[in-house]
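Researcher: Go.
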Amino acid sequence: MVSLTDSFLLLCVILRASTGFPVSAKDHESCVKLFGDLLQNVTALLESPILCFGISSDKVAVSQTETVHACAPNPTQNSGCVSQRNSSFIESECWRNINADLAYYDIAIQLYLKSNLRSSQNETALLEPTRTIIQRLRKVTAKMWDSDSYNNRNKMCKLMRGFHLRAITMNRAICYMSSGDHRN
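Model: Structure:
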């Protein structure tokens, strides 16, 4: 069972990772390869009998980000895609959601590996390579600071304004949960 502390840790990591600044051109090629590796790794993981052994459900659980919507291509006139949005593509918003997803799955796997496992050694051997790829991706996509102090301060100021709003929301949520009113 995941504790309140573990849940709070997961929330904090997601919020920390939810800054969205584009990846530099020099990291783009590495990023593309790592995301391809991640897809192949997760596909193989799901095909392995170790993790999903005896589970017949096809249900899917995903993080609560807006990655599908935020990273959808720009709308075109003749497109039949249902998931396209009505606004233009914003690269930083897409990256913010991708980073939040990476943080979510990294912590979720970490917490899972600390739980009561059916086959600890096999499951750890299966999931650790996934975490390694995720952590490498998080390092590549986290390079948001450059050598220009003004641009860095500008980004940090915007980041802190957004974090201030998140802190207000978190404070309200924690006070509400602590009051017990949601149980009535």
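Model: Residues 1-23 have pLDDT under 50 and may be disordered.
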